[in-house]
């Protein structure tokens, strides 16, 4: 249902029309966004908003990045879609980039994060069946985890409200407590074919996995002959100020899923894996009409080259650090915890965050929630120190107004 706001952007014909026509899966307010520039979004009345949500951690280069735009314009004029019946240069170029900067040597492209999860599960099941036989099919996921909304991915997504209305789901999925090494060890058994975990949980509230937890998963997977899947759809690709979220933990997965920022706002996902796993799947056993098309992969090559630049990542770390210090210095009694890394920060309150998010929007700052009590700060990775300070000052003003 539309919320009521006192901003100049209330209620609009567009919002009312959309609400009357679309399947009601999104609880949206009346804000209608019309264009964007850098870290700024503009509504239909020309009012501007500092974008601290980046379309849910997608717009890493901000809106309308000139280099990204030039790539997209050039590629759109050259070739947009041919299907996966044929090769294209941008697809091969993107795969080469992903492989040469990761543990992986094979890539399967998808159109979204949830499809990357599906690809990871199908690769894992296919590999386990080929190598160990059908009983080895179970998938272990964790409390608080989010891996998508399609039937397979939602089966491994923790929140009961997302899963239960759609039962029966994918059989053979188990859950264990996140960051509990003993529970994980006990839950990974001979029938486990894969374990899926976010190195930093996003929807679950910006909760990092401990290095000890990730190491335990790796060891237990190796002991039981299971594959380890890292879901870096939200926390990967520069968001933490390093290319991969798992970098520096000493643990490598067998499969890693990516999506959100990879093509700068165009729909894309990927499941990266090794020759060992990829060898189990044959032509025709998985596929997609659109995935890895030349337009999105050309855009993604430009995004990837920008993000992996050490100077770019250093700026994410610096701005993220200053933003985090600013949040810690807020000294507001309603803030119970500040956590996260890089430009992936969570501000936990002692109360639901929806009213704060609505107040921030009125003052020109777009924020998103991660669960009921956590504000998720995931701005474009090109955010400057000045823009971080501007967002912080709006957030501070909104926090002061809480009862
Ligand atoms: N995995 C994680 C960690 C996510 O945060 C999300 C989306 O928020 C997904 C998977 C699903 O991605 P998509 O919404 O592109 O299907």
Task: Give structural notes.
With about 400 residues, this protein is α/β, with parallel strands linked by helices. Helices cover about 35% and strands about 20% of the residues. The protein has helices at about 15-20, 55, 65-80, 90-100, 115-130, 150-155, 160-165, 180-185, 210-225, 275-280, 295-305, 310-330, 355-360, 385-400, and strands spanning about 35, 40-45, 50, 105-110, 140, 175, 190-195, 200, 205-210, 225-230, 255-260, 270-275, 335-340, 345-350, 365, 370, 375. The strands form 4 sheets. A 7-stranded mixed beta sheet has the order 4-12-11-10-7-5-6, sandwiched between helices. It has a 4-stranded mixed beta sheet with strand order 1-2-3-15. The chain has a 4-stranded antiparallel beta sheet with strand order 13-14-17-16, with helices on one face. Helix 3 (about 65-80) packs antiparallel against helix 11 (about 295-305), helix 4 (about 90-100) packs parallel to helix 11 (about 295-305) and helix 12 (about 310-330) runs parallel beside helix 14 (about 385-400). The longest helix has 20 residues, at about 115-130. The radius of gyration is 21 Å and the shape is globular. The chain starts with 12 loop residues before the first helix and ends with a helix. Mean pLDDT is about 95; it is low at about 1-5. Bound molecules: pyridoxal-5'-phosphate (PLP). Pyridoxal-5'-phosphate binds near residues 112, 147, 148, 231 and 259.
